Every structure is written in structure tokens, then in C-alpha cells.
Amino acid sequence: MVETLLLIGVIASIFVGFNIGGSSTGITWGPSVGAGIVTKTTAAGIMTVFVFLGGITVGQNVMETLSEGIITIDLTLSAGVAVLFFIGLGILVANLFGVPVPTSMTTVGAIAGLGLATGTLNYVTIAEIISWWVVTPIIGFWIGGIIGRYVYPEVNRRVEIEKTDGPLLTFDRGGTVPKPALGPNTTRSEVGTTAVVLAIGCYMAFSAGASNVPNAAAPLVGEAGLEVNTAVIIATLAIGLGGFTIARRTMDSVGGELSDIPLLAALFVMVTASTITTALSYIGIPISLVMATVMTIVGIGWGRATRPITFREAVTRDNEARERDIELGVIVAEEKEGKPAPAIGEAETEEVLHGSDLFNPRAVIKYVSMWIIGPSMSTLLAYGFFTLVPGVV
Amino acid sequence: MLSRILVPMDDSDQAGHALAYALENFPDADVSVLHVVGVPSMMMGDAVSLTLEDDLDEAAAGRAEPVFERAREIAAERDRAIDTVVGVGHPARNILDRAEEYDTIVVGSHGADRGRASRRFLVGNVAETVSKRSPVPVTIVR
Q: How far apart (Å, rounded) are the C-alpha atoms in residues A27 and A309?
């Protein structure tokens, strides 16, 4: 009986890990794959390795919170399996309706629902987690805003990410040991940027492991029956499986959308989101990597769109500035230089487009609402379930 | 007499039908085709990449061009000319903000995102919002 239940639990854990693998590999490697720097297969391979490293190190802190912090009792096997089913249900809803339901938050919701139903909820821990959930998007947004407004334009002017045709490296197989050499079109800086892109991808994969491995692994750890290492390995393999299979699709959808953004901006997003996610995982707070990513992107866009032309800029870039019409106090979203006259037969655009229209708060609120609805629903469902079927705990 | 008609278009079939309908049923009217770029999506990829361009107007016009190209073809088949207008951000809001300047709006029933529940759920059905809130009559073309 126990073996059967554990087997069901492992299957549920694999389902959860598989789906997490699909979505997190998508956002982690979408930009690099989109830019043609790595292939989808290489991406999935590297992903698996770094997800494991993230899960086995920093991820342990999150696992501790999930299995011992949120509720005062240890998760039993049957309760753990039930929790996994609620996580899976959240993922299923997300897949069916294509809405971004954050897995980490669904997990906390399901365990909190169990705690409420059995009167074992640790309110201090849950309050701390929820406060971080409120603060994190704001932090992500503001860091993104600062990058978009001040850092990105400066860096963009100096750095150019190159990608030439042909393989990056070729191997001279003449000798006993294959000697790597630069590919036919490869420049030295291309090797450098490729290395940076790969390193940042690995970092994000690490943070994905730290924040997401616990969702699949924690419910089966401890009293539920699995050793931490075993659970992490199962979760990693499932995430890897998702990375090699369904991530091929998510790299084009979710990840593809991220790769619409210039690679340089995507790298800023990845570093910021990974740092936020790793830091919070380190202090044991379960957090959604997607949440940090989306808020940083929106922040960068908003920061850039509302970028005013400051006095300093007007002075230091005098020549360019003189060619523009600058009205004091007017926020100019975009810089216009030598705009060509419209071709014959084309209507002239009369109105000026405003970048800030792209970041209408209402557009963002719809995604933020999912971060409230997702965990709330899982809490309610789990609460209902564990109240109606008290024997499970 | 309806003399100024707004036809919001994306790259869906329905949008093409809407334009054809407008041109055929209002032979003397001025038809303006509006296309909105940088529509909010899950990761805001389109919107952010647009703001990161050096020149927003130019980038937006460039992205709208394929839709206008098709609109001009549809118009040319009927020996008509059209005006083009580019908008950025939320489609329904863009349409509604301009609605007052026109006598009527002719819109396709579903945009290109039909079937992608995410867009339908999150962005909302453009035709529905416009028909509910527009100050001028709206024709929804299938």
C-alpha cells in the first residue's frame, strides 16, 4: 500500500517536474536559442546540470520551508501526494488556459491549505513568505526601471553582441587530441559574448533549480519517505525530460517572446531575475522565477519608455540635442533624429506615439492578478480537500 | 451619411473581411485602417522590444507595414485608397480613443489570437470591448 502510494507520488512529482522543465527551460534558454548561440538540445543538457546544482544546494533551504516551515507538522506521504496533485492541477489549468500560474506560489498555497484545515499553519512563516511575494515584484520592477532608464542605453551604445555565420569553434582533429580553433568567421569578441551568454544562462538555470526543484521534490521528502537527494534527483530528471521535450515548444512561445527583446536587454533581465530568485531561495522563501522575470522586463520597458531627456544629457550631447525639439518639462519617450519623409502614397503620421502607452498599468495588473488568484485558489481547494478528507493527513 | 470609417486590423482573416465589407458597403467613405503594435502579452516581449528601439515611430510603422500592405491590396482590388494609422499598446483602448473622430467602426469578430486562450483571456476580446464602449456605431464582421 505504502509502496503504491509512493509510486503515485513519484509519478505526480515527475509530472510536476516535467512541466516545470518545459516552462523554466523556455524562459532560461529562449533568448540564447533565439539568437542562435546554443541549440535546443545543448540548452536542455546544460539546463539539467545546473537545475540539479541549484536544487541540491540553495534549493534545500526552500525545501525546508515547504516541508517543515509552513506547517508545524511533517508532511505525511498521503498528504504530500495530495499536495503534489494540487500543484499538478495548477499546472494543468495553466497549460489548458495558457495563463501564467506560478508553480512555486501554488505549492505554498496547497501546503497552507493543508495547514489551515488541520490547524497546523505556521502564520509567522506564511506572513513572511507573502510579504516577500508583495515586495519582490516591486523590487524587480524598480531594478528593471533603473536598468531601462540609465544602464541599458549606456551599455547598448558600447556593446555589440555579434553572431557570425558558421560554427563558433572548429576542431583540428589532425593530432591525437582535437585542438579547438576559432571558426571561419568567428571574431574574438564573439567568443567572449558567447561565453557570457552561456554563463548567464547557467546562472538562470541554477536559480530555476533552486526555486523549482523543491516544488516537485519537497512533498515527498522526510516523513513522506524519500531522501532529499533521491527526491532532488527525481525532480531534476523530470525537469530535464521536460527540457528535452516540451521545452522545444516553450522556447518558441514564452522564451521566443523573451527573445523578441534585444539579447543584451534579455541578459540584463536574466541576471536580475536570477539574482532575486537565488537570493530569496537562499533565505528559504519560495518564489516564482517567472514572476521576477516578468516584472524586470516590464520595469525595463517602463523605465525606457518614460525616459526623460535630462538637463545633463541635453548638455553633454549638445549637438544631437540641438537637432531635436526639446520642450522643458516634456517627457519625450523616444529620440528622433533625421526622420525620413514618408514615401509617396503613404499617409503621414500626425500623432506622436508614446512609449508609455505600452505600459498601461492595466495591462500588467492582469498578470499580477494571476499571482493572487493562483495561490488563493490552491489554498482554498487544498483547504476544502483536507477538511472533507481529514484521514489523508 | 457615414463618411469616415475606422477599420482596426491585425493579420487575421476576419480583419481582412472587415475591411472588404467596409469598402464594399460604404463606396464613398474615407476608410482609415488602424493597426496597433506592441500589444501587451504574457512577457511583454513585443512592447519592451518596441520601446528599446531608437525611434518608436519608425519601429512601430515598420511593424505595422505588413498589415497595411495587405490592407492596400484589399483596397486596390476594389479600386479604392485607404489611410493608415499606427497605434501602440492596448488595441481596444487605441480604437476607443480614436472612435470620436469617425462616424462608425467596422471590426473583425476575432483577432489573430483566436484559439490562443491566453490572449483571449488576458487581453480580452477586442471586438467585444469596442462594441460595448464605443461612442459610435460598431459593425462586427465575421
A: 33
